[in-house]
Amino acid sequence: MHPHAQVYAHAHPHALPDLGRTMVLTGASRGIGHATVRRFSETGWRIITCSRQPFNRQRCPWEEGPDDHVQVDLSDRRELQLAIHDIKAKLNGKPLHALVNNAGISPKTSAGSRMSSLVTPVETWLQVIQVNFLAPMLLARGLFEELAAAHGSVVNVTSIVGSRVHPFAGTAYATSKAALACLTREMAHDFAPHGIRVNAIAPGEIKTEILSPETAERLAPTIPMRRIGTPEEVAEVIYFLCSDASSYVTGTEIEINGGQHL
Ligand SMILES: NC(=O)c1ccc[n+]([C@@H]2O[C@H](COP(=O)([O-])OP(=O)(O)OC[C@H]3O[C@@H](n4cnc5c(N)ncnc54)[C@H](OP(=O)(O)O)[C@@H]3O)[C@@H](O)[C@H]2O)c1
């Protein structure tokens, strides 16, 4: 535990109920991942973050940030293996309470439109499948012992587009998210006897950089709640799935979309 956190915990014994818990989260540098790190750090979690960018002290106020950041391109399988070693070294034999597989990519055509099954290059398919689908599996498998030691929780970030065609999201992206939803079910089955829960969250339209600029304007009127969601609303559900409040929940996919799937 960071020495500042120890002092703080002594002064405010009820303010940081999750002190001593550790999470690994991919795609922490912005969007849903960034909001999730903020949400968890508020209650005392230690967070090991992963993304391609170096740690940015100005945007990320959490304490052990630079020391607990792993710079990795998840599209590179060799880099990913090195990152798993690095994460294990940072854990140093301690249990891992949560793994949030949040990083994802959604390539568009050069004109910014949906990349359909007719035009998606094979290289794009391979990159999307590696980042959105294989990396979550390899991370969960690579950190299995640490997760089992904590009776931890894995949360995979899927998408509403895994179950329907979307005007902006492409074929490779949609396929990778459908596969990740299936993988969640399979891993929940395989990991449950070891005390590890595995769930998914499927956001609809959330205000982040991954969205096409016209999404809010075009799609919000079609959503029953008549608005797009915020990263903080997604972070809250991830928190629920990593907390004891969901201790008997595994193998499920929670829709976070204001009723868009109805
Ligand atoms: N926003 C939505 O409406 C929405 C809807 C459904 C599902 N989702 C899913 O939610 C997750 C987060 O999305 P978001 O909207 O927050 O996206 P975002 O704002 O584009 O952020 C994506 C994050 O993933 C990281 N990342 C991307 N490629 C990476 C790579 N190759 N290696 C390591 N890290 C990588 C990025 O960090 P670096 O650039 O530093 O690497 C960034 O932190 C994604 O899985 C996305 O598919 C989002």
UniProtKB/TrEMBL annotation:
PROSITE patterns reported in the protein's UniProt record: ADH_SHORT (PS00061)
Q: What InterPro entries would the database entry show?
A: NAD(P)-bd_dom_sf, Sc_DH/Rdtase_CS, SDR_fam
Give one Pfam family, short name only: adh_short_C2
Q: Which GO terms describe its molecular function?
A: oxidoreductase activity, acting on the CH-OH group of donors, NAD or NADP as acceptor
- Entries under SUPFAM superfamilies matching the protein: NAD(P)-binding Rossmann-fold domains
Which top-rank group of organisms is this from?
Bacteria
Its family remark reads: Belongs to the short-chain dehydrogenases/reductases (SDR) family.
This one is known as Protein FixR
Q: Which organism is it from?
A: Blastochloris tepida
